[in-house]
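Lecture 7 notes: from sequence to structure.

We start with a single chain of 298 residues. Read the sequence below before looking at the structure.
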Amino acid sequence: MDTEIVNDKENVVLTEAEVVEKVLQFAKLELKYLNPNVQQVYFDQQLQNDDLKLVELNQAVTTHVENGGKLIIKGNDTDNCVMCTEDQTFEVKDTEISNSLLLVPGLNAECERETYSGELSLRRSEVAAVSHNYLELRPIRPKMNAITALLSPSTYEGPEYEENVRDKFTMDDLLQTIAASDLEIHEYLKSMNIVELDGFVRLIDFDYLSRVIGSVTALLDENSWHFDSFSRKETLEVLKSLYPAALLDFVLKSYGAPQSEECGDMWSLSEDKVRSDICKHLHNIELPGKHFSICFVK
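Now the structure, written as tokens:
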């Protein structure tokens, strides 16, 4: 039942619905053009202004969240805060607005359209919070050089140097520390000389990596194996006493590929890629008066 309201000036008692109708008449709004479902907005006694943050999402991110995807906030004391999906990174900007944004839980913004039939349907809704700013997300390219800076002090140079290595990081450490999405971090790691050894993500010293490559090519030469056709399993078995298995596997996958899905053990090594990477590295080494000769035997 509608609450009765006394209008002292006219000395009559009006129901809430009649008050709403009079307000609409004063605003010169014809009832026949309005939705009869009226939502009356009141302010809660204890607003949660400091407990809530509004975030503006584009359609793609909205769909991602609606489908059960996560939004993860990353950042530290020196970097700006970012928000990430599984495959994209966004800069978070605090945007102020001149208007007040009212947060009303349960507000029915999609009432079925009905024609006014002489009676209003009233519904009470309470404002839970008032905000004058919101978080705006802007897609950015993350600063991946932070990974190199983080891993450089623990660069893997061989087992003989391991006792001097201190700060090592796991994959979970990187995913939580680096201000980028998980997919972008994994893609960057694939493009670098980075291998997971004994549970830790390690940057591999290129001189040491060259030794591994040299051992693989020397093994091919000693056994008269062709660059385009050799046993991956046998190669790993012979060299595993000299180098970590994960590092050997990394070299074979980085510089070669299986001949076919049917013959997964038969491997093909790209001589051009091996030569290109080693020459590129030697070109960056400044040794006046020194000259290098590289010979690849097939």
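The radius of gyration is 33 Å. Keep this in mind for problem set 3.
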